[in-house]
Amino acid sequence: MITRRIHIAILDTDVPVPTVYAARGLYSSQFRVLLQSAASRLNQSVKNNSSSAPQIQIHTSAYDVVGGSYPTLGMLPKTPPLNEERQKEIEEEEDDEIFRPIDAILITGSAASAYYQGEQYAWIASLQDFIRRVWSRYPLVKFFGSCFGHQVIAQALLADNSGEQLGSPLVRVEACPMGYEIGIHPIEISREFAATGLGKTLSTSLNEREGGKLHIQLVHGDRVIGFNPSAADEPETSLPPSALTALPQPWLNIGSTPLSPIQGLYYPGRVLTYQGHFEFDIFVNTETVIEFGRRGGWDAQMVAESLRKINACGLEHDDSRVAAEIVVQFLADDVGIDIASRDAQEMNVSMKLDYRYPTKRAEMVRSVVANGLATPPDEMSLEV
Predict the structure, then answer these.
(1) What domain of life does the UniProt record list for this protein's source (predicted)?
(2) Is residue 245 part of a domain?
């Protein structure tokens, strides 16, 4: 049987809170376990259905990007996959998985914000430079981002703050004006994403639930919204709902909640992101919120309400397994890579992007502090 081997470079952008780290290890370790488990379930389904689809094998390597560790660009493929016969010969010659070319970049969650600047957060600017370099030069490499990963990919590839009228709405990453979004908040899947092959697979699974919405753990104080430069100074309440979810083609919004209009990004064959954490279960999110509450000085009522929402679906009754399987299917699907490669090159030519921080920076930083992002108070030292 044919095996589809996928090498994922996981970029660790933070360390889990102490109790989670002691029990589960780094975020990269947690993603490895979850994605390998998802691949095993998909492989078993293939066997049960006597399908000829390839078996999926997930291998990961981890990089501490806060400390400046990145995959070498020589590990990123520039040419299409080899034919099956030659690929098998190479696999027999090379037994060490770590030397296989990198097929995808996965960016974890973090307590930091994608728009942070200053020497303390220089690693965020370096990460965005890396994302843009891989995007433009290595069109065969896919991206997945979770929470901060979702936001920093949006900031690197779609945020435009030059003030130029480009005609197409891009995005901005900002502090949630209504504060944290924590626990289970049903995510309404967008019609546009549901119409894609990957979206249909997700929607079919979710339709088994009442309402057909995605239920995964959330804990974030930032969000991604559609951003049209001409409406930069307009209050959110005066904008049509579509303005908050508008994306330049072929980008699609996965879904929305009232607090976060863009709950994920999808660029066919190239990018998939989730604002939520399918890698978090009740234990991980509970311990994370308790620690964030301690660091941020949250009152008892806020912590209690957050924990109530975290337990909204009960133990192991959310959609984390489905969400993980969708990620594996996205990474394993070769369909659309050529189109994505061409579109990425065209986008780099047609979109003149300036990645400076948005205007009204002082107001944004004050909003960050007021809403209590998941960053320890002693790290909130940005200049205003």
Answers:
(1) Eukaryota
(2) yes
What is the DSSP code string of 273-312?
EESSBTT--HHHHHHHHHHHHHHHT--HHHHHHHHHHHTT
DSSP code, position 111? S
Q: Which two tokens stand for residue 166?
A: 């480009």
Angle at CA 358, nearest 5°, toward 139 and 246? 60
Task: Yes or no: say if 279 and 323 are a contact pair by the CB < 8 Å rule.
Answer: no
E strands, the chain, are 3-12, 55-64, 104-107, 142-146, 170-175, 181-184, 188-189, 217-220, 222-227, 252-253, 255-256, 265-267, 271-274
Q: Are 70 and 63 in contact (CB under 8 A)?
A: yes
Is pLDDT above 50 for 382?
no
Q: How far is CA 43 from the centre of its chain?
A: 24
pLDDT in tens, 222-244: 999 986 544 445 555 555 556 78
Place of tokens 């078996």: 55
Extract the tokens encoding 227: 């951003």
Could you give the number of structural domains in the chain? 1
Distances from the Cα of 225 to the Cαs of 38, 97, 220, in angstroms?
Answer: 30, 39, 14
- Say if 384 falls within a structural domain: no
In the structure encoding, which two tokens stand for residue 61, read together?
């390597």
Q: How many CA atoms lie within 13 A of 97 on its CB side?
A: 11
CA distance 91 to 106: 23
In order, the DSSP letters of 175-196 are E-TT--EEEE-PBEEPHHHHTS
Q: Quote the domain boundaries for residue 216.
A: 3-379
Residue 316 maps to which CATH number? 3.40.50.880
In a domain, 58, yes or no: yes
Residues 6+ apart with CB under 8 A from 52: none
